[in-house]
Amino acid sequence: MKKILIVDDQSLNQTILEAYINQYCEQHNETMQIKTANNGIEALVLCQDEKFDLIFMDILMPHMNGIEATKNISQIQPDTIIVIVSTQGDEENQIQALRNGAKDYFIKPIQPDVFKHRLDLYLNIMSSTRDPGSTKRSINPFTSMVFCFKTTYLIENEEDLAQLWESLLGTIKDNVRTNFLSDLIRFMYQLGHAMLSKRVQPQIIMEENENAYFFSIPNTNIIPTVKIIKLIENTLENAIYKHELNLLSFQVNKEVVNTITSPSQQTISLVQEAPQKPVVVTYKKETESLQRFDFMESEDLTSLELKLNELATQFMWMGSNELNGDDVDHIVSAFERTSSILMMYHETQTLGVAIYDLTSIIQRDEKVFISMASQMSPLCKSFNNDLIIWFKSVFYEGAPSVNYMDASIISNIQMVQSFLSPAEDVSLDDDDGFEFF
What is the SS3 assignment for 242? Predict the structure, then answer.
């Protein structure tokens, strides 16, 4: 019998969630034990005495909030699925909760159909990861003969991708298909972004035996199989993989080296083939002083980062998959939020207005946007990539000015607009004083 804990300081919210769970149980002939707690401390005390399979956790509560409770409970019950129940516009707390062990989150008010669908997903995850009848030592479906240790990576952002690469360089001592390994890491990163957009924490489990390394990604059933296969075909050549139920696994064979090289030579070779970040704008550090800017409120900064990552995921699928109305709605929604944040601040109003104009054109010519998605995909990716580089430089790494990439970004926006509108509708005049290239 599955045990569920509902943590919320509002009794009405407890009652609603409990009612949804009971309705699900009646529809699926399930039996679950449900308990409630009024704050994080009560939840922590309960978790010290008994094991829960699933916890629905509010964030804003007296005595101990949901983020702190999630962190503490994750340490004593690492296998428990903790789902945050949060209010709209609370992105920063949502991110903090995910970083402290939560696996998913809901936005209040919760829709019953969405809740029951996600509850079904959580139960499937529990069944696939905690099957007591399984005696197979390995996670991957290729072989049960693996070394006793396994390594699990959690991927949330580009920093995690860099850490994964460095970790693999330190872990993998044999000569493997290094170029393929680089492409595989990029693939896993892209798939991880797609899973995060579905509010599921991506995991990469690495196993090893004498002949090969194995990389497995669970819970892939939230992404349509056809999209995963297309992404593999577009990203990886001669990949050895299996996609069964909710698990995607890759086999990377170890290869025998005919020539002997020194460890330093091997390291240099691997580092040279590591993923390189694209360079769009260059400048001389000795002639231009760099600075980080802090004019934007922290909640807007967090929300902007989320929307740029969301757009990156949407454009990732855009080139190899047919768009539909829902896909366009997601893109438009992310654009609208991005432009509204940028237009709130004098320093970024120019970019905000340009993105707002692009959003209006996409909404007006949705059918054209859908029909020309594959042709516009490279432009959209380039435009969004410029935005991400601008964001990191201005707010985290240092930039010569807030507007140092405006010309490049707006130029890409106008190129996207030119696909959607007749030439006379797209002004190429330098009204804003920028020099376009």
Answer: strand
